[in-house]
Amino acid sequence: MATTAREPGVASTTGLGESASGPLSVADRVELLRYMLLMRGIEERALNLYRQGKVPGSFYDGCGQEAVSAGAAFALAPEDRLCVLHRDLAAHLVRGVEPERIFAQYMGRASGITGGRDGNVHFGDRRLGCVGMVSMLPDMMPVAAGMAMAFKLRGERRCALTWLGDGATSRGDFHEAMNWAALQRLPVIFVLENNQYAYSTPLRLQFAVDPVERAAAYGAVGQTVDGNDVEAVFAATLRARERALDGAGPTLIEAVTMRMHGHAAHDDMRYVPAEQLEHWRARDPIMLQQARLQAQGVDVEATRNAVAEQLDAALARALQQPLPDPASATEGVFCEGEAEPLGDGQAPYSGYAARGTDRV
Amino acid sequence: MSEMTYLQAISDGLREELRADERVFLMGEDIAVLGGAFKVTDGLAAEFGRERVIDTPLAESAIVGTAIGAAVVGMRPVCEMQFADFISCGFDQLVNVAGKMHYRQRLAVPLTIRLPSGGGFSGGPFHSQNPEAWFMHAPGLKVVAPATASDAKGLLIAAIHDPNPVLFFEHKHLYRRIKEDVAPGRFETPFAARVAREGRDLTVVAYGAMVWSALEATADLDGASIEVLDLRSLVPLDERAILHSVRKCSKLVIVDEANATCAAGAQVAALVAEHAFEHLDGPVVRVATPDVPIAFSPPLERALLPQVEQIKEACRELLEY
Question: Which one, of A278, A308, A297, lies nearest residue A42 by Cα?
Fold first, then answer.
């Protein structure tokens, strides 16, 4: 159940090198690393594009938080549905969005996921089971609860998951969704990405009680995990998914992490004490997973190089993509044909593949 | 055909859709056990079960938000706001999530929200509003407002079939006042205007309860031939029907029960000014509720809402112009 720890110690909750989550094979664990590397690699390159003036508007990233989206998305099945937030790029990668389309998305190109309709990580590929976030937070909590409500009404064994930030817990939709989901015992997972700051507002100015403590008051399960340990996030999500499918209702997972960059690229983060950043830099989620794998004799350099090569090629292609046709700006406000619901995404967790369709 | 009130026609539309399409489910506050504050859903929980007629917590944002979630995974939710006024608490989900979804990611949100609206019976500032225009201004939302029992059923069914979010404004003052023969089974009324009465000398454009006020006001107006155009749909707005009528009659009175500024009628006036100016034989005249909250006490409420006499007067003055 809930704990109040906001900053777990340097050692991960599972212990380095230990098998964090029984069902993960070594290949799965390398995949988790690879998704985090992809996310960071894409965001580093996109930040450069932004500084070169090739990404219009503003630029948001999830540097330091890669484990939260990679770990949670990796625990889901293809038929599960996700509402992905702006610091959760790895979730899109796990579901199968190609990096080239993500670069194109940042640059407002026609081949981006929204075709230039929306910017940065405000996207969701409907064919892969994802709903794109809106800026009002946590608006995706009721939406995810509604998807779960439909699954329950239809008697389907699947779940919905959304992420939310610490700041979003102050808004009414947090309360409405937690109450609703617990009341109806919905198969939904809320991953609270506690990254210490909502723009410049620290936790102590956001709430008097850690939001994970509120879960029990609603009749939901609350659990805190080390948000920088990708396997711990995976394991917590997997358990929450099992509970959801067993009819035990929603789980609020608080993944404690740190936003290592500003709120957006323009933000110099002068409000963050240097020692706080130093503390978290030593606990970098990619570094932790690399160390864990190296201890098992995995050649992580090979993974790093493959990712860099893949991303350089993807970026080169994305740069060749055209901007959208201004004549198309007014198209698509309404659906003119049949409503096509969200499709299934990629779910590379090998445990599921091995177990076939009758997975938990 | 069987005779039904406006309210019964809405219930009938819901029943037909619940029977025909297992994806359809209803949710709202007090709609199952109680049958709704106005009894529109009375008996539906008994017939279709509590899983398809769901009593929700008092949480308008979650009603709209969860309906969006259910819609994008293939359901056809029909939500009830207990009063249209309370949609303000679900505004964000509707305008920012539902309304922009298809444009941003080509994901349809087949969602219907029923909004009992309108004044005339001392509901006061929070149970009398006509907030159609809030949503006309927000891209991606359709807005319909039936005046007759048949249209109430047909527009509701069309709304449930539509792949987009549709706001269905049902006027509370018409619930039990209006009665007519309504066709059985499932039929769709198009999101387009209807000529409620043909005429030659002047057009009155109205929707919802004001259609009846306009018909009454112009039933016998010194022998003049008055056309009454019932908009039925505000988004999409039937521009062709409006312009056709105005070009024919050359004089236009627009009646809104909503507060005047930026109301549906203001959009009609702008449309006519842009596209039918040269056909006008007089200024466009508007009769609308002033920009004041709807007062509770009967004489105050009457002083605010457009009355039959006012519409008559407006038409007379314009006919003499």
Answer: A308
